[in-house]
């Protein structure tokens, strides 16, 4: 669950996302204290201080951290200090919801190509983007400088679509299909599995533990 | 990011979900080794051994862990050894995708009530479930013994919907609205934020790190 490539854990990345959002929400502040950042994110004060300490000692005693610099450092790590062109593959219910999802563009993520295998959709446009068949992927990736794909196809179509994307040179894939897809080591894959999230919820709601404390690992 | 209620970390819960799935996939095995479980989940062998050690020493030397008992222990922790009745709030594109999502029912999660605020949808049926206005929530929660809700409404409607659910006695909420909703301490809330997941992907794809190694925290 930890990226071998960066040594940065998934939970740390998530916290960086929350800090990044909190800094935007913090408005016109020039400095922010770890306490304020803890309050805005709902995270513990000690945890926030520890995370920030990794950036080196650039906090100013009695004032806190310079907001502009902190934003810049975090967005540099998250890769949100630039624009990402994204291809959406699969324009069913989920794909349509993702296409209209607020928040992507604010962080520099823009869906600039759409693919589906439904002949009734291919050739039509969605917000000015022509929907293409998957056989157009490689051409569109080149033409539109696409670096990321979002896979929102049924489980049985996912591996094929991922293989096509990898073949087109894509190095970053966000997969929503509830199936384990395989990618070469150089390709970054993030899976969003709704069942896993529901299990996390039922685990919390159950609050039971078998055989003692299972601590973070 | 760690549950105060169970002391179990989110990444550990996620791994338990993967183990659970791998054990189902393992087919007719009576015993499973940590190596085999590592192979099936793609996780490290040492990590799997460490996780399993928390269950106590019930592995059999030279054979591995008894599959049936391991399944039972994990599903007991995850709360998937029982059925959960779920209300889906919001039947837009995302809600429709979630309603048809494969995999929920396999783990005991069943959407048995649907709510929307669209007069054009209220009163209609979806797979035998009558779509209701949110004012029916409390009645339906009681009648159908609903314990979880999935919130798939627009950001500006989310807090109101969550408040209504909490008022109806719901203690477990899976929120897809891209907004920070507030719940009382006794209520379990899991947020799925697609932008955070895309940031995780761009972070991995960027592979950059500001100021040294940020290790798991």
Task: Provide an overview of this structure.
Two copies of one chain form a homodimer. Chain A is of the alpha/beta class. In chain A, 39% of the residues lie in helices and 16% in strands. The first copy, chain A, has a seven-stranded mixed beta sheet with strand order 5-6-4-3-7-8-9, with helices on both faces. In chain A, helix 5 (93-99) links the parallel strand 3 and strand 4 (109-115). In chain A, helix 1 (10-25) runs antiparallel to helix 4. Chain A is elongated and about 60 Å long. Chains A and B meet through helix 1, helix 3, helix 4, helix 5 and strand 8 of A and helix 1, helix 3, helix 4, helix 5 and strand 8 of B.
Question: What are the main properties of this structure?
Answer:
homodimer, 217 residues, alpha/beta, Rossmann fold, 8 helices, 9 strands, 39% helix, 16% strand
Number of strands of chain A: 9
Q: Tell me the series of helices and strands of chain A, N- to C-terminal.
A: HEHHEHEHEEEHEHEEH
CATH topology of the largest domain in chain A: Rossmann fold
Widest sheet of chain A: strand order?
5-6-4-3-7-8-9
Largest sheet of chain A: 7 strands, mixed
Write down the oligomeric state.
Answer: homodimer
CATH class of the largest domain in chain A: Alpha Beta
**What is the residue-mean pLDDT of chain A, rounded to a whole number?**
87
- The dominant shape of chain A is elongated
Count of helical segments of chain A? 8
CATH superfamily of the largest domain in chain A: NAD(P)-binding Rossmann-like Domain
